[in-house]
Amino acid sequence: MVDSVLNAIIVIVMKFRTWLNIITLVLLVAVVFFGRDQIVQAWGILGGVNIWIFLLIIPIQLLSYFATGETMTSYLRKKGDLKTTSRVKMTRLALESNFVNHVVPVPGIAAFSYSSWVLNHYKVSVSRSTMSQIIRFVLIFISFVMVLILSVIVLAFDNKANRIVLVLSSIIVTATICLVLFLLYAMGNRKRIIRMSGWVTHMINEATSFLTRGKKKQILKLKTVEKYFGEIHQDYVEIMNDKKILIQPFLWATLANILDALLVLVVFLSLGSWVNPASFFIAFGLSSIISFFAATPGGAGVYEAVMIGFLTSATGVSASVAIAGTLLARATLLTITILFGYIFYQLTINKYGKVTKPTDI
After folding, report:
1. Residue 355 burial by CB count (10 A; 0-12/13-18/19+): exposed, middle or buried?
2. What is the rounded CA–CA span in Å between residue 13 and residue 33?
3. In a domain, 265, yes or no
4. Which of 72-81, 209-218, 234-243 has the lowest mean pLDDT?
5. pLDDT of 10 above 50
6. What is the tens place of the pLDDT at every residue in 150-159?
7. Residue 171 falls within a domain, yes or no?
8. Domains: count for the chain
9. Longest dimension (CA), the chain
10. CA 12 to CA 219: how far, in whole Å?
11. Is residue 231 included in any domain, yes or no?
């Protein structure tokens, strides 16, 4: 059932992203054309990399994957799952999921489905793995907003919070709060979430029928969806009765956010360029969120354009340094993720076989 929902959502989202990527392509061409002189300068800057500082990205990225995995699995362990599963395997799952995000042009959704499939082989029910991933995304967003607010406060006291920073930060904070409130509202009442399951079933079936021109009129069955959402509601009730269960995942989510931003900041430091961590965290967060809506693998192109644009317009970093640091960081991190992610992904596929939809709901 999960895969059916995800496949339908992928079709719908791809329609929206087609137009978004046309606009992005036009903007990228404009950036390259008008910034060609800075790109040439950036190439020269790359020759001055401090290799010892640069190599710090290896242990930091390993810690980042560990923290990301623990955000999700620390909750599952509290619920009695994964008792015999090592933390190394969960770190590996975080790496594999990130790899899937970068090779499949629908980030987030593809990794969500893959993680559920792998966890199913560790005897974790689909509804519980879904809840663990909802917790992961929500806590990462909440912790991100808290660090973001702290960053804006730091800049305000330092008289460096310009209008661009304040406006973009306000938009991110507002959107995150609305998302969290919607999820809490939807999951907080069994009757409400059951009604929602009917609405989701109807809308996805209608959208599927429209997009396939009537060739496939029903992709979801109402009873299956109701059972699935009912189990999610039950997990939600248990969490509300024991809120302390979220403390450990929240701490891991906060660490994961800080480490992800630090990965890129270290590359700038290796180039001899200091960027205010508060400003940098805002630039990193904005780039990550906007690139999520890009249909390019890993948001390639969109992430770089936003990061470079923000650093040069809001932090005073020169265009050549912003281009050199951003491109070097992305190229290195993507290479590591894709290389090692592919190896572990193939080992998982060889062990469990073809990715199929979970059946234990």
Report:
1. middle
2. 30
3. yes
4. 209-218
5. no
6. 877 777 776 6
7. yes
8. 1
9. 62
10. 14
11. yes
